[in-house]
Amino acid sequence: MADPVVAVVGAGPAGVRAAAALVAAGVRPVVIDEAMRAGGQIYRRQPEGFLRSYTDLYGSEAERARAVHDCFDALRDRLDYRPQTLAWTISDRRIFTSGPAGQHVLPFDALILCTGATDRIMPVRGWHWAGCYSLGGAQIALKAQACAIGRRTVFMGAGPLLYLVAAQYAKAGAHVAAVLDTSPVSASLAALPRLLAQPATLRVGMGLLRDLRRAGVPVHRGVTPMEIHGEPDHGVSGVSVRTSHGAILAIDCDAVAMGHHLRPETQLAELAGCAFAFDRMIGQWLPVRDADGRSSQPGVYLAGDGARILGAVAAEAAGELAALTTLDDRGHRVCETARQDAKRTIARARRFAEGLARAFPWPREQISRLDNATILCRCEAITVGDLRRSIAETETDEANRAKAFSRVGMGRCQGRYCGLAAAELISAAVGTPVEAVGRLRAAAPVKPIVIASGGRCER
Amino acid sequence: MTAPASSDVIIIGGGIMGCSAAFFLRRRGLSVTLLESDLVGRQASGTNFGNVRRQGRPLYQLALANRAIAIWREIGMLLDCDVEYRQLGHMRVCYRTRPELAAAMEQYASDARHSDLDLEILSGNTLRARFPFLGKEVLAASFSPFCGHANPRLVSPAFARAAQRLGAVVHERCAVAETSKAGDDFLVVAADARQFRAPVLLISAGAWGDRFASAFGEPLPLSSRGPNMCVTEPLPYVLRPSIGVVTPNTEESVYIRQVERGNLVMGGSFYNPSYPDRFRVDVRPENSLSLWRQIQRLIPAVSRVGIIRTWSGIEGYLPDSAPVMGPSRTTSGLYYAFGFAGAGFQLGPGVGDAMAELIATGRTNIDLTPYRADRFGAA
Fold first, then answer.
1. 3-class SS at A23?
2. Contact yes or no for A289/A297 (Cβ under 8 A)
């Protein structure tokens, strides 16, 4: 009988540690990753031939990044590693992938999904202008390509990534025009007891703020975004916000990086049939997961920020835990101490994440303030007014219905970037809780794939 | 216990058949209650390809198709909603490997010459000049200039809203638990215990229609299938008509159209498994891959285009791929319009209109013989 197939999707901190734990138990996992090199988004590696040091690239996280990279490099001979490969759907316990060698179908016995996260976006008037990026996109430009997104960049939104990317830009010598944080100082103070669950992470955060101030970067807390100014030919030209004192602050810039913390990439879990539940604290639908990393689907395990945003440290622990649980469920003997250690790390991260949710709240109240001309869905150029009008005309109160009628979330990203804001808009317009609006159903492919990737008919 | 809500007609099933019937019944002055288990137009009516195609149908069906096309041509004004009906033509093509199908298309054009289809048979340089993007394998085409395509997501809900504006009562998320006839009236009880009463009951419940028919002693051999659909990222708008491959081989039977927004909508090749009991259909990825391989034979230039979404729906099929349409043979006041075998979208408005006529006047000029519920033999 052939060896059972254990697959890991994603080679960020969770996927790498999951693979390592499997290899340590004598299993040869298949590791499927979209990127050219392992590391995920947070520890994304620069292309071969780029020579920046770990400290330059990852700052305070240099040692963690190096450890994850070294761990993966040491595993290479004992893995079936498939880089630059998109797992585009899951069906009947088979993973369908599209990669350099074309389409491939991988039946699996166990699957650990470590699919990571993308930015959570609250739209603002003018965010469709060229030069406006997500925080994650701005960070990738710097880490992977050593490019800044503009000559004068404003960072706007809330969450740890706001300060991290701004500080990385400042350190790399890019001009950071301002950091505009929508969360008030009072929220951070209220969150402090929970943030102390990970004192080292908190120290890193405070250090970023200190670095920014030393670099002379203006940091404003409690702002309300008004508009990203721009024009079709030249893109972004500035940002205006209302400060916590009620004054209008206008800042010239040619690029904006924006985001409100992160959202997990859950489509593969949904396509695999995993159950979801709404999490009130963060206002998002998450795949249901038990304390050991099992999803509701037998043989499908979830780890890292793709299941719940807990950060890179917890992702490493969750990856290891999911692998140990996989091994345990498949009859291997596993080290109980390692599982308990991982669970403790995750528990601390959960408390810290509760703190972050309080310190950097998702500004759902902003959705009602958006004027009708604001673009909501960038892929399809659907405005806030388009969706409001469609809701009113069709008496729609559900996310998929609103998509069917208005095209919101119907474009290339399939609602991954606008879906949360669209749900908030429906919720505000109809007057129901956002969980009652539901969520956009995941559909294959999770990202666009080219028709010819499946081959042609030979004739 | 409150008294059942009463009306002239109860319609079970809010797809394109039920919604258009509700609209046309109201136009004839009958009071209507429409019950939909989920949301109107969400099943096959909302997930199909969007073809407004007459050619290729059995000749006996063309009278119904023509009744429908007349409504399609004024549908925007009729429903006060742009449902994206664009009369840009429909084209069937056949491949060089099946030259006999070119002859069959010519024969069909000749047979249907009195049915106002105005079919043009194209081949060789004429075909290449008009449609230069077609693959080398394409041998001949039958072009139907006065057909087109529309947005299936919009049509049934637009019929339902228009019916409501005329006074129809539409209950969404209202699953039916029980139907019975007591005296002259039908009593319909919803899963949430709401009750409805009417002397006429129309079953337009698509792939679920047989469940209601069998409750009245008319079991039907209805099965279900899921169409295999996908859509690309938007491209410049160049492809006006809807195009489909004629072939006896399911695998190579694919079709494509472009919406004004620019996306290419395509479907066909193998069907997906569907589970009406669970309101569930699985898009089998190997079916998507098969569709993508086949569509490159029809239009090779699509090969570098990105697919952004796949989907399916649940369609009801009877063994002869014709629907059940008309009065019940067991129960007076009971009518059927379901089982349209993946080809009901174009017919929909005509079916609603004809059923309204039949219910309101007792007759219709559409010959309903091919659609009788008892054509599969006695129960």
1. helix
2. no
Contact A91 B46 (CB under 8 A): no
Q: Which residues of chain A make contact with B259, given a CB cutoff of 8 A?
A: none
Smallest Cα distance from A186 to chain B, Å: 43
Instruction: Encode pLDDT of A329-358 as tens digits.
Output: 999 999 999 999 999 999 999 999 999 999
Residue A247 contacts B where some CB pair is shorter than 8 Å: no
Q: Which of residues 105-124 of A touch B (CB under 8 A)?
A: 105
Q: Does a structural domain hold residue B65?
A: no
- In chain A, DSSP finds a helix count (H) and a strand count (E) of 15, 23
Partners of residue B295 in chain A, C-beta under 8 Å = 451
B297 with B257, same domain: the answer is yes
- From chain B, the residues in CB contact with A272 under 8 A are none
Domain count of chain B? Answer: 2
Q: Does B157 touch chain A (CB under 8 A)?
A: yes
**Which residue bears the tokens 């916000």?**
A241
Instruction: List all residues of chain A from 72 to 91 with a beta carbon under 8 Å from chain B.
Output: 88-89, 91
Put simply, the answer to whether B303 touches A404 (Cβ < 8 Å) is no
Residues in CB range of A337: below 8 A, 6 or more apart: none
Query: Which residues from chain A sit within 8 angstroms of residue B39, using beta carbons?
Result: 398, 401
* CB contact (8 A) between residue A91 and residue B283: yes
Among all residues of chain A, which has the CA nearest to that of B287? Answer: A454
Strand-strand pairing, B169-171 and B90-95: unpaired
Claim to verify: residue B120 and residue B263 sit in the same structural domain: yes
CB contact under 8 A, A394 and B157: yes
Question: In CATH, what number is assigned to the domain containing residue B139?
Answer: 3.30.9.10
One digit per residue, the tens of pLDDT, for chain B of length 379 reads 578 899 999 999 999 999 999 999 999 999 999 999 999 999 999 999 999 999 999 999 999 999 999 999 999 999 999 999 999 999 999 999 999 999 999 999 999 999 999 999 999 999 999 999 999 999 999 999 999 999 999 999 999 999 999 999 999 999 999 999 989 999 999 999 999 999 999 999 999 999 999 999 999 999 999 999 999 999 999 999 999 999 999 999 999 999 999 999 999 999 999 999 999 999 999 999 999 999 999 999 999 999 999 999 999 999 999 999 999 999 999 999 999 999 999 999 999 999 999 999 999 999 999 999 999 985 4
Q: Does the CB of A459 have a partner CB in chain B at under 8 Å?
A: yes
User: Pairing mode, if any, of strands A219-221 and A235-242?
Assistant: unpaired
CA atoms within 13 A on the CB side of B159: 34
Alpha-carbon distances, residue A77 vs A22, A72, A114 (angstroms): 13, 10, 21
Concatenate the DSSP letters of all residues of A212-243 into one string: HHHTT--EEES-EEEEEEEETTTEEEEEEEE-
Asked whether residue B369 is domain-assigned, the answer is yes
Residue B326 is part of a domain; what is its CATH number? 3.50.50.60
Q: Quick one: pLDDT at residue B353?
A: 98
| Chain A interface includes B278 (CB < 8 A) | no
Co-location of B163 and B297 in the same domain: no
ipTM of the complex: 0.94
- Cα(B195)–Cα(A304) distance, integer angstroms: 50
Residues B141 and B43 in one domain: no
To the nearest whole angstrom, how far is the Cα of A404 from the nearest Cα of chain B? 6
CB contact under 8 A, A405 and B302: no
Interatomic CA distance for residues A393 and B62, integer angstroms:
35
> Domain containing B122: what range?
90-145+227-312
Residue B55 forms part of a structural domain: no
Interchain contact, B285 vs A91, CB within 8 Å: yes
Would the CB atoms of A450 and B307 count as touching at under 8 Å?
yes
pLDDT at A1: 54
Q: Write the pLDDT tens digit of every residue in A350-391.
A: 999 999 999 999 999 999 999 999 999 999 999 999 999 999
> Structure tokens of B96?
């060089």
